[in-house]
Task: structure prediction
Amino acid sequence: MEVSESQFDGAISISMPERFDMQIHREFIDVQSSLRGRTSEVRVDLARTLYMDSSALGMLLMLREAVGGEAGNVTLANCGPEISKILQIANFETLFSIER
Result:
């Protein structure tokens, strides 16, 4: 997982690995904790992600809360067909901005 901060607008970008599951839970929670109160704009790049399980959905919900809940903006970007299908089934388009 790679984290970078835009010098232009202060938005944080998180690039997720091929497998977004419980194996990266600790690392994701550490990143999420470091963002609390620091930004309200996060972009999660899922271009490399081919697999996502229910724990990943939970982590995304926790990230949303960490950056301000409804007041924050978490964008799920570069979603492939399988990931898009998972997000659609979970009805995440009501909670996140999704870019395919």
Remarks:
- The beta strands are 2-5, 12-15, 19-20, 41-45, 51-52, 73-77, 97-98.
- The first helix runs from residue 25 to 35.
- Helices lie at 25-35, 54-66, 81-89.
